[in-house]
Design goal:
The chain is an alpha/beta fold. The protein has helices spanning 8-25, 31-36, 44-48, 58-72, 88-109, 117-130, 132-145, 155-160, 165-168, 173-183, 186-195, 200-212, 215-227, 248-260; strands at residues 232-233, 241-242, 262-264, 269-270, 275-276, 283-285, 290-291, 296-297, 301-303, 315-316, 321-322, 327-329, 333-334, 339-340, 345-347, 350-352, 357-358, 363-366, 377-379, 384-385, 390-393, 399-401, 406-407, 412-415, 421-423. The strands form five sheets. Strands 3-6-9-12-15-18-21-24-25 form a nine-stranded mixed sheet. A seven-stranded parallel sheet has the order 5-8-11-14-17-20-23. Strands 4-7-10-13 form a four-stranded parallel sheet, with no helix packed on it. It is globular, with a radius of gyration of 24 Å.
């Protein structure tokens, strides 16, 4: 099937949809944001060129993703041609052309036999544009969550405010930020800073995150990729129906891994207000994985064990902290407000309650013996596990660790044959 991409059908049907989406988007931008908005143009002839077996040019895709990033955080993207004042109508129309080309090229590359392929591409394009208010809000909360990093109190702030680390150590900024996330109220944190004469730092720290932190950017890449995997009516108030796009979501995920070393599968469900720390060390999520909101995730692997098409990746609750080099494999469930220490391995059929504290270098897993499927390991709420502990279950009975249990460091715990913990050492 051949197409000129930007043919009469496209021009005829784009215009009324463009007017609708502009009416939907204008209220989300302040005058300051509009003055900062800059979009990199791409010539239509380039967008129409086939790449390889008809898939999109990844260099062009990088530009498109940068432009979408600019739409949710105006002024954050390095545009090659920043001359002239911004015009929302022209900017959104340019992005529509770019997205439409990416989506249609992807459908063509998959050799779709749908006679309405252009209509499909156009509807999916505008469905994504209608998501911009939601994507903009998510990006803002992800940037705000990055303020949990103590390093946002940098040398410039300390010098400007005549501060020292002893003074800052008196404050629990982390808890105040989590409270603001729970209340969905930025002013809660800003009021806290103002009470302690630290309000001057807030805007600078958000600018620091926008300019230099990679975590919120790769999460935005993921948001775009994830949106392109969805089908049916979206939650954006429009009646436009969307359909999963072939190839393109995985290409976006690959770019995120290339530039930010975070391999987030596009079908992973990820909440907002999450802080990905030191992504350059590597972070992996899987297709059926779930991550809640308010989490702090250091370089780790949230992977699978099974080759069967089923729930095979971890489910992470809200306000969970996962330390460096932790490995969670399989249908592991981590409850809200839990902590997984650095270097810990959790695998198999493990269910963890809320407020659990797992220290460093802990191993918790189910062990398959032959063809027998082991029972689960269930940790109750508030369980604390010391450094270097091993908890394993090879029996077909579930192993229960009661609420608020405290397991000493370097313990070895197994199933006693009746579902209760037995200490080997």
């Amino acid at each position: 099937m051949s197409t000129t991409l930007f043919d009469e059908y496209y021009e005829k049907h784009k215009r009324p949809l463009l007017n609708q989406v502009l009416e939907h988007l204008r209220p989300i931008y302040t005058p300051e944001e509009l003055s900062a908005l800059r979009i990199d143009p791409i010539r239509r002839t380039l967008l129409s060129e086939r790449s390889g077996r008809g898939f999109v040019n990844r260099d062009l895709l990088e530009t498109v993703l940068g432009n979408l990033l600019e739409c949710v955080a105006p002024g954050s993207h390095n545009v090659t041609d920043a001359s002239g004042s911004a015009d929302l109508s022209n900017s959104i129309e340019e992005i529509i052309d770019q997205l439409y080309a990416m989506i249609l090229q992807s459908l063509l590359a998959a050799q779709s036999d749908d006679n309405n392929i252009e209509a499909l591409a156009l509807d999916t394009t505008f469905s994504l544009l209608y998501e911009l208010p939601k994507l903009k809000e998510r990006a803002l909360w992800n940037r705000f969550a990055s303020l949990k990093d103590p390093a946002v109190w940098d040398a410039y702030i300390l010098h400007r405010g005549n501060l020292d680390h002893d003074h800052l150590a008196e404050h629990n900024f982390f808890a105040q930020i989590e409270e603001a996330i729970s209340k969905r109220d930025f002013d809660h944190y800003r009021s806290y800073l103002k009470t302690h004469n630290l309000d001057f730092a807030f805007d600078y720290q958000l600018q620091l995150v926008v300019s230099t932190y990679p975590g919120w950017r790769v999460l935005f890449y993921h948001d775009i990729a994830h949106a392109l995997t969805q089908s049916g009516s979206s939650e954006n108030g429009s009646e436009i129906s969307r359909t999963p796009v072939p190839l393109l979501p995985r290409a976006i995920s690959e770019l995120g891994g290339r530039y930010y070393q975070a391999d987030l599968h596009p079908e992973t469900q990820i909440g907002d207000a999450n802080f990905l720390e030191h992504t350059h060390r590597g972070l992996t999520t899987g297709q059926t994985g779930v991550v809640g909101f308010g989490c702090v995730i250091y370089p780790c692997t949230l992977g699978g064990l099974s080759d069967k098409v089923r729930q095979r990746h971890p489910r992470i609750g809200n306000f969970v902290k996962i330390g460096t080099d932790a490995t969670l494999l399989g249908p592991v469930t981590i409850g809200d407000h839990s902590t997984i220490g650095s270097g810990s391995d959790i695998y198999g059929f493990v269910e963890m309650g809320q407020n659990c504290q797992i220290a460093s270098s802990v191993v918790i897993g189910t062990v398959r013996l032959g063809s027998r499927i082991p029972g689960k390991i269930r940790l109750g709420n508030g369980v604390r596990v010391g450094d270097g502990t091993i908890i394993e279950n090879s029996t077909d009975l579930d192993l229960f660790i009661p609420d608020k249990s405290e397991i000493p460091a370097r313990s070895h715990v197994v199933n006693d044959g009746f579902g209760n913990p037995r200490y080997v050492r």
